[in-house]
Amino acid sequence: MVHYEIEGGHRLEGECRIQGSKNAVLPMMAAALLQRGTVILHNCPRILDVFCMIRILEHLGCRVDWDGHTLLIDAYELRGCAVPREEAKKMRSSVILLGALLGRRRRAVLCCPGGCVIGERPIDLHLAALSSMGAEICQEEEDICVETGGLHGARICLRFPSVGATENILLGAVLADGETVIRNAAREPEIMELCRLLRQMGAKIAGDGTARICVQGVRKLHGTEITVMPDRIVAGTYLLAAAGCGGSLYLPEAPVRQLACLRRLYACWGMTWREKGGSLYVQSAGDYPAVRYVETRPYPGFPTDLQSPLAAVLLKAKGESCIRETIFESRFRAAEEFRKLGADVQIAGQLCRIRGREKLRGAVLDAYELRGGAALIVAGLMAEGASVVRDEGFLERGYEHIVEDLRGAGAALTCRRSLPTAAK
Ligand code: EPZ
Fold this sequence. Notes:
- This protein has helices at 22-31, 48-59, 85-90, 97-105, 124-132, 163-173, 189-200, 232-245, 260-268, 307-314, 333-338, 370-382, 395-398, 402-408, and strands spanning 2-8, 12-15, 38-42, 63-67, 70-74, 107-111, 136-140, 143-147, 155-157, 179-183, 204-206, 212-216, 224-227, 247-251, 272-276, 279-284, 294-295, 320-324, 344-348, 351-355, 364-366, 385-391, 412-417.
- It is an alpha+beta fold.
- A 4-stranded mixed beta sheet has the order 21-22-1-23.
- The chain is elongated.
- Bound molecules: ligand EPZ.
């Protein structure tokens, strides 16, 4: 258990370096399985989900080494094609190994990744797409076994622009026989990063970043090295903390083009947002109007992963705000914790209504998932007095050093570990 101890009520002043993107690097690590050489990933975040993916790759026969924040994945020798159950259960995104293992080994065994507090998170779109590419799918109790005599191209139209399903299809299509066309594909920057890596490995892909992606299968891929982009959700979390606490924040390397939704919010709040090349400087007076209505949408809409941190900021906005969560069925868990700070939050289904309060008072809060946990830290920084966020390791799944980062921006924040979290 990690206790984040916060002395709230202070403005933020300082700068933060943004880590590499968790949601970009995980599919890139899976892509390394598709070739028999070495893939080198620079700016790789040292977070629990990456450590979990490393254990899976090593179980499958890869040699994986760290050199600072550079990860070297040698996938020459693979053995087996079963994803270890205890690791798969820890991380939803283990499901994208299906496409990579089908592409390399023509077989994969994966236990049904569990749902979690943000929603059921089924994988029907993944399985339907891989099946249309020639994968035979059978479910043996909790295990999903997929195999193929060789994947072939297909024309796939996704009912929903699922990020993971788009990634799985790409990982299966790059070595498939023929052309694959994905319609209603996810347009997230993480999809474009994966395609950037795959093209450097020799894949033929066009249209990434749009809703229609075309892949021409090739016979072989090779190793390469690449630098992972900054994490737009980590950057967005810190920018929202600066807005809510007041003060100024400088990000020397920020994914500014991917944060247009926050730039618009800063403009509504009358706050400074100054981009210069890839750096970003923001300033907030700490008082701002409510946001009448915002809904989470697939990229380039407002990201669901910033919904809870935004809700935290709106706890002190002047007036009534309303957030509709349209991506996951139950992603307002943090909103219930906000009430312990004295916030006025009403939840009705997918709608969260927040009446801003002038003051919040510190409290003991419990994290139940990754982004909700980060939102509790933002809210604690905005509340007067002491707060504690109790966390069973959710935050370290996605934030490499949230304490050091926010302390670098002037936050009074420490963390105390009462039990060891997962092995590094
Ligand atoms: C990715 O999850 C991200 N995770 C999530 O970030 C992010 O919130 C999500 O995309 C949406 O942007 C990683 O990239 C590792 P989806 P993913 O498939 O791929 C439904 C974080 O905190 N759906 O786009 O699982 C699903 O239930 C995490 O970093 C199906 O119905 O998201 C959900 O309602 C949280 N059937 C919606 O689509 C399927 O087969 C979006 O899911 C697949 C998805």
